Amino acid sequence: MMDHFCLQFSSMKIFAANWKLNLSPKETRQYFETFNQKLTAQHKNNQWIFFPPASNWEACAQSLENSPASWGAQNFWKDASGAFTGESSAQVAKDLSATYVLIGHSERRQIFGEDNALLSEKISLAGKLGLKIIFCIGETLQERQENKTLEVLKSQLKILDKNISNLIVAYEPIWAIGTGVVASPEQVAEVHAALSEYLKANLTNAVPLLYGGSVKPENSAQLLKIPHVDGFLVGGASLKPDTFLSLS
Ligand code: PGA
């Protein structure tokens, strides 16, 4: 299969599903029965990545054994094992066949207080384990209104090592996540163009750029046409296989 890090040379798009704390192991198996059945040759031209809650990792791994889709950990602790009550292990996810991790989601930053120092350590563990990273960045409504969007995004990106590889960046304006308010095509175009320039200037390897925040079937086609939008990170609209597939 084509490596998605060569994405700029192809029309392949990335569709990443962030299930957050939704769906049980049983529902996960049912989801993939439908998903695997409905995945057509055309869908297979794109890349599909799932981030189920840790309780469903095994069900997800088993369901995707013969599927072109991949999966990863929504969250994990910065150490692979040890005395960290209640945490999840990236090493275990990898052993179960995960190829991705999600790092820096705004809910982790805001609700769980994950800061740049912790996120750097998570990035470093993912690198050591050979897990590909979807790194999320985004500004609050107040920061946007104060014209600080790019400044905030750059302060989030500055923890990335110049030579980092296997990285995807997801731009998710916090005010558009789970709110039903999607950023306008102009807003997405402006930020993605600036991010693309910044990443080219500061990182050695090409980085696909995803948009996230209230992506749904009604707005996906328009958003996918925007230059430097290489796909989506999707919450709510990824919870039903038909809806998720219809975003492509
Ligand atoms: P949403 O979530 O699609 O439900 O807005 C996106 C995300 O949090 O990744």
Task: Explain what you see.
This protein is 37% helix and 15% strand. It is globular, with a radius of gyration of 17 Å. The chain has an eight-stranded parallel β-barrel with strand order 1-2-3-4-5-6-7-8, surrounded by four helices. It has helices spanning 25-38, 57-63, 90-95, 106-111, 116-129, 141-145, 149-157, 185-202, 217-224, 241-245; strands at 14-18, 47-51, 70-73, 100-103, 132-137, 167-171, 209-212, 231-234. The protein contains ten helices and eight strands. The two termini are 18 Å apart. Bound molecules: 2-phosphoglycolic acid. 2-phosphoglycolic acid binds at residues 18, 172, 177-178, 212-215, 233-237.
Give a brief description:
The chain contains ten helices and eight strands.
Distance between the termini: 18 Å
Question: Nearest-angstrom radius of gyration?
Answer: 17 Å
Task: Identify the quaternary structure here.
Answer: single chain
> Major beta sheet, specifics?
8 strands, parallel, barrel
Strand content: 5-15%
Question: Kindly state the mean pLDDT as a whole number?
Answer: 95
Bound molecules: 2-phosphoglycolic acid
